[in-house]
Write a structure and sequence with these properties.
With about 180 residues, the chain is α+β, with helices and mostly antiparallel strands. It has helices spanning about 5-10, 30-45, 55-60, 120-130; strands spanning about 75-85, 100-105, 110, 155, 175-180. The chain is globular, with a radius of gyration of 19 Å.
Length: about 180
């Protein structure tokens, strides 16, 4: 049985205005969505008597997931995911969904497009926050203008046909290491 103090805390908590489920509305900041997700987790912990297993899957909320990266510098970018796949394993169903990604810039308070790949979301937010990033010289030690050497700046690296995921924090400036665009 749930602890009475836990129940009281959930009942008296300030209501969240952000949706506690999937939303495409760009009016909600990442902080708003995190607060809504935290409130949902607190409620689920009490209602499920301590368990919140699978909450990201059944709530369809935007969340950072297990590999959260806290960026620093100019245009700190964070990627969040929403799990929209169904739970009808091996059954015929009409569910439509996938794991979707979205990136948020804390400086600009801007969302990327909602995409089915993390790379697409990260590249879209870089197009907004770091226009011209696709024209950077390839390599972490390449000569670059001072603007591209500030904290949080991305770099481009040559990648093979696999391993093309954008890596947060791998830039010597603390930004993303993005795969160089292919010709």
């Amino acid at each position: 049985m749930a602890d009475l103090l836990d129940l009281l805390e959930v009942i008296t908590a300030a209501p969240t205005t952000a949706p506690q489920g999937f939303t495409t509305d760009p009016q909600w900041s990442l902080a708003d969505l995190e607060d809504a997700y935290a409130a949902l987790r607190a409620r689920a912990r009490v209602e499920l008597e301590g368990g919140t297993s699978g909450i990201a899957r059944w709530s369809h909320c935007w969340s950072r997931g297990w590999r959260a990266f806290r960026p620093a510098g100019a245009h700190p970018i964070e990627v969040v995911t929403a799990e929209l796949r169904c739970d009808h394993y091996g059954q015929d169903c009409q569910c439509v969904g996938d794991m979707v990604y979205r990136a948020w810039c804390w400086d600009c308070e801007h969302w990327s497009v909602i995409a089915t790949s993390e790379r697409t979301a990260v590249e879209d937010i870089h197009d907004h926050c770091w226009p011209g990033w696709r024209d950077l010289p390839v390599g972490p030690t390449a000569d670059r203008e001072a603007h591209w050497e500030q904290a949080g700046a991305p770099i481009l690296t040559e990648r093979g046909p696999v391993g093309t995921r954008p890596v947060p924090g791998r830039s010597p400036f603390g930004g993303y290491d993005l795969p160089a665009p292919t010709a």
